[in-house]
Amino acid sequence: MSAQSKSSSSSYTPASPDLASLGERFAALLIDWVACLVIVRAAGVAGWLPEEWAYLYTPGLLVVVYTAALGFSTQSLGMFFLRIHCVNADHLGSIGVPRALVRVLLMLLVFPLVTAFIDPHGRGLHDRAANSVMVKGASRG
């Protein structure tokens, strides 16, 4: 294996911390989606946003929330409740704002999520692009 291919591949190995299951990951995403939907609907009822456009504002809010949460921490609200973390595959810390933005934008395309079913470590294209991995456990940063 060349030095270039070693550096481009993730350093994640099966000996690393326990991976979060696909069910846990989906449940965390569902919690986050519902939280964003409730906020957008409440803003619509209050007259701050047009209610009929909630389907556009909800994914937009999810992008903002995920980018901030995973850019500066390792958990979103849903991940907090399920005690899972989205961490950098190399050092198990925060993935940073640019990678968090790439991850959530790809995640909204849905197809990258489906690829997690065929990856041996459950990492979808959105995880590979952001060099992230979802793990169980205590707070990592």
From TrEMBL:
KW DNA damage (keyword) present: no
What are the record's GO terms for cellular component? plasma membrane
Key word Transmembrane helix present: yes
Quote the InterPro entries the UniProt record gives: Pra-immunoreactive, RDD
PANTHER family cross-referenced by the UniProt entry = PROLINE-RICH ANTIGEN HOMOLOG, PROLINE-RICH ANTIGEN HOMOLOG-RELATED
The protein in question is named RDD family protein
* A Pfam entry, by short name: RDD
| Keyword list, A-Z | Cell membrane, Membrane, Transmembrane, Transmembrane helix
- Cellular localization per UniProt: Cell membrane
